Fold this sequence. Notes:
The complex is a heterodimer. By secondary structure, chain A is α+β, with helices and mostly antiparallel strands. Helix content of chain A is 23%, strand content 36%. Chain A is built from eight helices and 20 strands. In chain A, the strands form four sheets. Chain A has a six-stranded mixed sheet with strand order 6-7-8-3-9-10, sandwiched between helices. In chain A, helix 2 runs parallel beside helix 4 (136-148). The longest helix of chain A has 18 residues, at 166-183. The radius of gyration of chain A is 25 Å and the shape is elongated. By secondary structure, chain B is mainly alpha-helical. Helices cover 71% and strands 1% of the residues of chain B. The radius of gyration of chain B is 24 Å and the shape is globular. At the A-B interface, strand 6 and helix 2 of A face helix 8 and helix 9 of B. Chain B: This is sn-glycerol-3-phosphate transport system permease protein UgpA. Chain B: The complex is composed of two ATP-binding proteins (UgpC), two transmembrane proteins (UgpA and UgpE) and a solute-binding protein (UgpB). Chain B: The chain crosses the membrane at residues 12-30, 75-96, 108-128, 156-178, 205-226, 267-287. Chain B: One of its GO terms (biological process) is transmembrane transport.
Amino acid sequence: MPEVEFDRVEKTFGGTRVLHGVSLDIAQGAFAVILGPSGCGKSTLLRMLAGLERVSAGEVRLNGRRMNDVAAKDRDLAMVFQNYALYPHMTVAENLGYALKVARVPRTERAARVAEVAATLQLSEMLDRRPGQLSGGQRQRVAMGRAIIRRPRVFLFDEPLSNLDAKLRTQMRIEIKRLHLKQGVTSLFVTHDQVEAMTLADRLVVMNAGRIEQAGTPSEVYHRPASAFVAGFLGTPPMNLIPAEPTADGRAVEVEALGRFVVEGPALPGRAPLIAGLRPEHASRGPGVSLPVEMVEELGNGRLVHLRCGDRLVAVMLPEGDRAPVADRLSIAFDPDRLMLFAADGSALPQRLRAIAVRTHA
Amino acid sequence: MLKRVLFESRWLPYALLAPQILIVFVFFYWPTGQALFWSFTLEPPFGGAATWVGLRNFGDILASGEYWQAAVNTAVFALATTVVSLVLGLLFAIFADRGLRGLAIYKTGIIWPYAVAAPAAAVVWQYIFQPSVGYFGILNLVWPGIWNPLLNGTHAMIMVIAVSCWLSVTFNFVFFLAGLQAIPNSLVEAAALDGAGPVRRWFDLVFPLISPTFFLLIVLNVAISFTEGFGVIHVMTQGGPGNATEILVYKIYRDGFVGLDFSSSSAQSVILMGLVVVLTLTQFLLIERKIHYAGDDKGTRR
C-alpha cells in the first residue's frame, strides 16, 4: 500500500479552482519531488497533506487512512518551511525539542535526542543561541533538525533551500539526500528548482496549472517528457520547441528551418500543426543546416550558441572541446532520432523521425 | 536602534531640536519646576510673598487619612482599569485576528470610542448608569436598591472603572491586533505540525511573541489611568459619594483649584509624579528583561 495517496484532490480558493483533480501515490520510503512553476499548486498540494489547507474535493490518505478531517497535529508529519518558521523566542535546543515537549517525552530522553540530532546536523555548538543569532544555513539546519527529531512518518519540504545562496544550497541538498538514504523516511519535496528536483528525486512529479503533467523517475521525465511543457521546463537551457507541419499523407514532417523528416511508426493523424523538440546538447557543429548566429554565451564547460530560426531562437550547446571560433553563421548537425514530436495541445507523440532532406536556408 | 546621522554644521541639530525642547520646556519643565518650588512653600491663594516651609507640606499630606484613602482608591482604579481593558482588548483582538469577513468595518467601529473625549463619554454613560432614569434603573425596578452609584461608593467606583475601560479598551485592541498580525502564519503552522493544539500554541508561541506589546500596554495603561481618570470622575462623581472615587489626581485638582491650597496640591503633584516615574521604572526593570523583542537579535548577530 502506498504511504501517501492523493485521490482526485481538488482545491478551490474563493471560487477559483487551483487544483483540478490531482491523483498521486507515493510509496513507502520514496523521495518524491514536486516540480513546477510558481502558482502551479504544488505548495497547496503539500499543505493539504500537512493539514494546513482544507481539501475541497477528493481524498488525501496516509497509510490508507482518510486524512481529510484529521487535524495537522494528529497526522504525524514533519514539515520544513521555506522561511524555516523557527520560534524566535526559543533557543536552538528549545526549538529542536518543542515537538517532544508537546508530546510529553521525559526531560532526560528529550535532552538526549536533542543532543543526537544536533550532532548529526553540526549544531551542538549553537544549542543555546536564538534563531536570530544564526546564519541562514544554520537556521536551515535547525529547521531540518526540528523535523528529524520527531521521527515522523512523512517529511514535507516546502521549498526549503530557496532562501540559501547557491553554494549552501548544493551543500544542503547533499545533506538532505544523505539523511534520506540513512533514514529512509518517505519524503515529499516541493521546489521550482529543477536541479534540486532532478538530483533529489527518485520520483519526479512535474505540475502545471493545477494538474500533474508527468510523474516518473528523473531520467524518464528528462528523456521522455510526456508533454511539451515538461520538455520546455526541464534542462538548462530547456529543450528547443520549434513549430512543425505534417505532410498530407502523414508520413513526413516539415520542421521550421531544420528540414523535412520521415516519420517512423504509424502515420501522423490529421494535418494539425505540431511541435518538434530538440535538446540543445543533442545538436553540435557539423555538416547540416546552417543558421545565423544571434548570440554566444560562454559557460566555461561549453558554449551556448543562440541561432535565429524563423522568428524564434534555437539554442545549441557546443562542448568544451569545441574551441573553434563561431562566425556569423553556424552549421549544425543532429541525430533526427533525438527530435521529439508533440501535438499542438502539448502531449507527446510516439512517432520517431528520420531525415531525408535537410535544406540549407539563405 | 536609531540611525546615527552626522551633521556637517554644528548648530543645525540643536536648531532642529529647539522647537520641541521649547514646547516641552514651556508646558512641562516650567510648570513642574514651579510646582516643585510651591511644594516647599506656603503659597498665599490671592498672591503675596510665599513662606518657605521645607518638607512640612509633604509631612501634612502623608499624615492625612484622606490622602491615603485617595491613594488606595487610585490603586484600585488603576489596577482594575488596566486589567479589565487589557484583557478585553486582547480578547477582541484575538477574535478579529481570525480574519472575519468585514474586518475593516469591525476594526474601524471598535476604534471609535478612542476618538471620544473622556468627559463627553462620561456624560453619555452617566445617563446610562443613572439609577432612577438611566438604563440601569431597570435593575432597581426588579430588585429595588441594587444599583445606586449616587449613594453607594462601590457602585460609583465600578461605574467610573467601566467607563475608563470603555475608553481605553479600543486603544489596547489596536495594539494587540497589530502584535498578533505581526506573527508569521508559518510559525503557528509549524507549531501545529509539532503537535501543539490551539491553546498550547497560544501560550507557548503567541503570548511570548506579543509580550513586548503587552508590556508596553501595561506601562501605558497604568500611567494613563493615574492621570486620565480625571475627566471621567470629574463629570460622573466629582470624587463622591463621600470620597469613594477620589483618586490622587482628582484630589490634587480639588485641593488646588477648589480649595486654593496651592502648596499642598503642588506637593501632591510632586508625589504623584514621583510615583508614576517609580512605577514605570520598576515595570521596566522587573518585566522587561523577561521579554523577547523580535528585532533584538539583529544587534548581537555574529
